[in-house]
Design brief:
mainly alpha; 141 residues
Length: 141
Amino acid sequence: MDGLEYLTPADYEIAKQNGISYSIVYARVYRYGWDIQRAITEPLRQEGPWKAYKDQALANGVSYGMFMKRLHQGLSPEEAIRQGRSLGGRKLNPRISEEMYEKAALNGIGRNTLKCRIFQLRWSDERALTEPVHLNKSSKK
């Protein structure tokens, strides 16, 4: 043979016991070239605030992705680990208030347009709330 090692079901089982998923082990060995022993035993990196809040977040049904999304939206880690998908009626995005949505609506600007302007285009709040929506001629037909 050419010296390549192949993962066995026993290797995947050991990885699973170490909290490492099938896809991670597969990628480590076949994509990144790790040796099998390292791939099935080296723990996953947990950096940043997730490491400190992981147990409570998971107990509340909040995944890593949801936690990170909430942090990105401006919530503190304590707020981000609150139970469930909603935060008890509180919007996940505290930066845009209902008053801002109402002002935008009065100016003919929809909710999604406002969010796009603020978070993707990084416009100032005043510009996002007041600049008219520019429609091209084909959309008016």
